[in-house]
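Need tokens for this chain, all 105 residues.
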Amino acid sequence: MFGRSDPPDDSEGNDCFMAYVIAEPCIGTKDNSCVEVCPVDCIHPTTDEPDYDKVEMLYIDPDECIDCDACVEACPVDACFAEDQLPDEWQNYTQINADYFKSAG
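Here are the structure tokens for all 105 residues:
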């Protein structure tokens, strides 16, 4: 397992390690159960953030996530996955989550 300060080197430009990823079932749902249980507030946007109504799903910040698994248990639509357990058809959500935070940068 990689440490939070040591993401894997990826020559394809994906320079962040995603411990957890929110995938397609969150689209249109944005249930905030995961936000409420996250001990480090790494799931965004929250209802208090200005872009909450502009996005169709929630995202996990790879720099803030501590790999605790709380979001997986809390999500009522099974949208949160450890990156290594993300179903094949939703692999693109790793990059979608990372890109949300790169653009917010």
